[in-house]
């Protein structure tokens, strides 16, 4: 495959079909920012000001797909939101909150990993050891294969194991246990044994200065391991609901937490027990001209890119054809990477005819490759442009080069414009 | 040595002349550590890890090795490279990731040292991976007629890393496929927040040696002379027998784990202060030298002054230097012929930079940090 070249602005406008052009010109992006065009790299939507985040009680309680699990598991689910409380939490606090609920409600639940007893290097387990005791929340020796194997054993006995791998870059010593053991446990025992009660949490993705071994997004390595689920939350509400769902899902789940969001993503989070559905993508911004699909941290770059497209700052304006600015981009958070929500993605692409996939892992055989293959086979006749992948290069993540390796908003903007103008 | 630098009765002093003894002063390492730690706090480098409290373990073992013994470190072993004359500038350059950083071309985080000229293999963040590799390095030494029976592979690791499967594989391989591997466990009491009491239930790392048929010695890691003697003897055995030997140096991590850590969240400040006072490896050795008349307060002041100046000068130089060329994003992924995907991705980035490099602020600012201002990509002819 040749690398798509960067279209000149003139060509971009010309190549749009008349029907697309008219569609684009009347379009309105539903989350466009205020009247003042922001300066490039200046007051763009950042994580702190992101419209993706639910910063009010009302918005948090109306999170799509939310399923309340109230105290008495036997009573019918209360779908009312009246009277429910929320609290301002960042992502690590929401993760902690979810584990607190799991430990409180399920006596078999344990939380363990390297340095978790004092709160974990990202503070996700803060106070849990004090609250639930060292028998249930404890440090392990420094061995990821040990952590995974131990968790599998606990889960195989029907108890709830919530393990932490300190960085997803260090999950590879556990790869054998996860891929050959956890993933295949049910199948190989004829359905007699399973480790569905295992959840492996791990901080993931880049932070801008992590270098080779604190920046990786290893989800793609697990794509061939049917039997495992891979979940990536984008925000505190999502983290809490998806983590509780992961802990209770009948399958082993690897839960990858974008570590740059631990402190920077803040929402009102319902304090009650609730779950969000695994295996379901979520449309964050509806649109009709192009599907922009990602998960975790890049969602915020995508949001910025949409703002750059709709209202480019003066410095970028000459590069953003007027005709493209009104394009209605559908932004989707995949959330569960394995097994991924093929139906929702295909449904969207069939409407928009264009797909840009963004991930931080490198390109070759990344998750985007799988999605692109599936989309071209299921929506070939509906595609108006080649499926485009915006990814890191096929290099390790060199520390001093990170800003040019990990895709940011400008990469996304360019790919979106190219794809619209194809 | 006891706590105040007197040789304990019955102990044998290692062979040691005055010049060698003075050289082993361990003054440079803490000066480097202090400066690099502080400039990280000021945001000038992205990360740092000190060896405070472990100077005797690192420098004492370094002094016991031949300069061309292959070393595979974990990260807290800057002292080995300094002992071998790698130089202050090289260390600074690595921490800044500037154009003079040969160790990783700015690709790795600070403390990921490496220099083939100094027989020091590049540090990798994933723990314990270097341990079985050391057995392979040692086997290669054995297969090399020029180095067989002469050199060993010395591998450093923490008591935490010794819990990884790779530790066990390394020990087993070095003993079973006999290869002259010198295992040096730095037992500093902590793996980040996890105290060694939660790392193992048995008798430390040393107790494991026997299980693999590996001769083992445990040493007071804060007594540089004991470390020197023990490591010399262990090294001799290792090279002569062509088999693995294990040294466990008992020490204490006085500093925080790294600049990302605040250790007072899990240990008492007083505990650290007590350790610094009662069992200070540098103070103990200074007293020993003074007792012999080989060292004086003025020697000390003079040395520290001049080292501080050197370190300061190196820091100023390193700070002013730019990064490697931007095209080094794509170099060294493969040797030999470069695959098409990388060629095309370089071109893709080039086109993006040409289009947005001067108008997208985050890139505009960043490009200036490279010595070529990005020209190695921007200036490429299509
Ligand atoms: C495989 C792997 N797991 C986890 C980590 C994160 N980590 C970095 S240093 C460290 C503690 C190491 O302790 P120890 O081996 O005792 O060395 P010390 O820091 O005490 O010198 C941990 C857990 C890592 N780098 N690699
Ligand atoms: Mg340690």
Structure, described:
Chain A is an alpha/beta fold. Chain A contains 16 helices and 16 strands. Chain A is globular, with a radius of gyration of 22 Å. Mean pLDDT of chain A is 90; it is low at 1-42. Chain B has 382 residues and is of the alpha/beta class. Chain B has helices spanning 18-23, 28-41, 55-64, 78-83, 88-96, 130-143, 165-176, 206-209, 224-241, 269-278, 281-291, 297-320, 340-356, 361-367, 375-378, and strands spanning 70-72, 120-121, 153-158, 181-187, 190-191, 194-195, 215-220, 245-250. Chain B is globular and about 75 Å long. The chains are: A alpha/beta (422), B alpha/beta (382). Chains A and B meet through helix 6, helix 15 and helix 16 of A and helix 13 and helix 14 of B. The structure holds thiamine diphosphate (TPP) and magnesium ion. Magnesium ion binds next to strand 5 of chain B.
């Amino acid at each position: 495959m040749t690398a798509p070249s960067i279209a000149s602005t003139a060509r971009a406008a010309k190549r749009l079909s008349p029907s697309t052009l008219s569609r684009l010109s009347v379009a309105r992006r539903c989350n466009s920012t205020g009247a003042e065009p922001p300066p490039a790299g200046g007051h763009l939507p950042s994580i702190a000001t992101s419209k993706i985040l639910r910063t009010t009680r009302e918005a948090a309680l109306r999170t799509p797909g939310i399923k309340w699990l109230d105290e008495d598991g036997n009573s019918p689910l209360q779908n009312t939101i009246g009277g429910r409380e929320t609290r301002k939490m960042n992502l690590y606090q929401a993760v902690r909150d979810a584990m607190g609920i799991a430990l409180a409600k399920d006596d078999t639940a344990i939380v363990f990993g390297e340095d978790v007893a004092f709160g974990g290097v990202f503070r996700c387990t803060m106070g849990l050891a004090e609250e639930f005791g060292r028998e249930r929340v404890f440090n392990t020796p420094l061995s990821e294969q040990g952590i995974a194997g131990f968790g599998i054993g606990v889960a195989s006995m029907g108890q709830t194991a919530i393990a932490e791998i300190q960085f997803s870059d260090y999950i590879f010593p556990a790869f054998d246990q996860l891929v050959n053991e956890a993933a295949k446990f049910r199948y190989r025992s004829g359905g007699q044994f399973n480790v569905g009660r295992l959840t492996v949490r791990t901080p993931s993705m880049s932070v801008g200065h992590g270098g080779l071994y604190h920046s990786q997004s290893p989800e793609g390595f697990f794509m061939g391991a049917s039997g495992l689920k891979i979940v990536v939350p984008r925000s505190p509400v999502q983290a809490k609901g998806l983590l509780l769902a992961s802990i209770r899902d009948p399958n082993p789940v690897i839960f990858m937490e974008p570590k740059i969001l631990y402190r920077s993503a803040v929402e009102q989070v319902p304090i009650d027990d609730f779950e969000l559905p695994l295996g379901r993508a979520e449309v964050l911004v509806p649109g009709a001209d192009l599907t922009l699909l990602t998960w975790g941290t890049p969602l915020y770059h995508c949001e910025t890119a949409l703002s750059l497209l709709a209202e480019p700052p003066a410095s970028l304006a000459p590069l953003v054809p007027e005709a493209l600015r009104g394009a209605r981009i559908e932004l989707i958070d995949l959330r569960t990477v394995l097994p991924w929500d093929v139906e929702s993605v295909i449904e969207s692409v069939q409407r928009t005819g264009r797909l840009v996939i963004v991930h931080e892992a490198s390109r070759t055989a990344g998750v985007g490759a799988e999605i692109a293959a599936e989309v071209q086979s299921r929506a070939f006749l509906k595609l108006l442009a080649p499926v485009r992948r915006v990814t890191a290069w096929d290099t390790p993540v060199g520390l001093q080069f990170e800003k040019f390796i990990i895709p940011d908003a400008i990469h996304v903007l360019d790919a979106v414009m190219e794809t619209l103008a194809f | 040595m006891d706590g105040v630098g007197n040789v304990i009765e019955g102990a044998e002093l290692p062979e040691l002349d005055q010049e060698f003894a003075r050289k082993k002063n361990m003054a440079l390492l803490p000066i480097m550590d202090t400066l690099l730690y502080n400039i990280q706090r000021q945001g000038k480098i992205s990360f740092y890890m000190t060896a405070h409290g472990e100077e005797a373990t690192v420098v004492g073992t370094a002094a016991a090795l031949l300069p061309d013994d292959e070393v595979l470190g974990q990260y807290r072993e800057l002292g080995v490279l300094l002992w071998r004359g790698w130089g202050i500038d090289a260390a600074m350059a690595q921490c800044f990731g500037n154009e003079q950083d040969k160790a990783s071309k700015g690709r790795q985080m600070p403390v990921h040292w490496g220099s083939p000229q100094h027989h020091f293999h590049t540090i990798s963040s994933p723990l314990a991976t270097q341990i079985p590799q050391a057995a392979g390095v040692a086997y290669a030494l054995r297969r090399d007629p020029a180095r067989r029976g002469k050199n060993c592979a010395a591998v450093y690791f923490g008591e935490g890393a010794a819990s990884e499967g790779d530790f066990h594989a390394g020990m087993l391989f070095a003993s079973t496929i006999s290869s002259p591997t010198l295992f040096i466990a730095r037992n500093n009491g902590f793996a980040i927040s996890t105290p060694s009491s939660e790392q193992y239930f048995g008798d430390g790392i040393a107790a494991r040696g026997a299980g693999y048929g590996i001769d083992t010695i445990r040493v007071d890691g804060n007594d540089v002379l004991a470390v020197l003697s023990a490591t010399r003897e262990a090294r001799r055995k290792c090279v002569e027998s062509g088999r693995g030997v294990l040294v466990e140096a008992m020490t204490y991590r006085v500093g925080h784990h790294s600049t990302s850590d605040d250790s007072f969240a899990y240990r008492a400040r007083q505990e650290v202060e007590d350790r610094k006072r009662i069992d200070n490896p540098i103070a103990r050795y200074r007293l020993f030298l003074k007792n012999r008349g080989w060292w004086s307060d003025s020697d000390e002041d003079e040395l520290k002054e001049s080292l501080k100046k050197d370190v300061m000068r190196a820091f100023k130089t390193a700070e002013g230097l730019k990064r490697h060329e931007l095209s080094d994003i794509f170099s060294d992924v493969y040797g030999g012929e470069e695959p098409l995907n990388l060629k095309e991705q370089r071109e893709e980035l080039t086109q993006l930079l040409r289009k947005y490099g001067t108008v997208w602020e985050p890139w505009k600012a960043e490009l200036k940090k490279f010595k070529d201002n990005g020209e190695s990509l921007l200036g490429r002819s299509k």
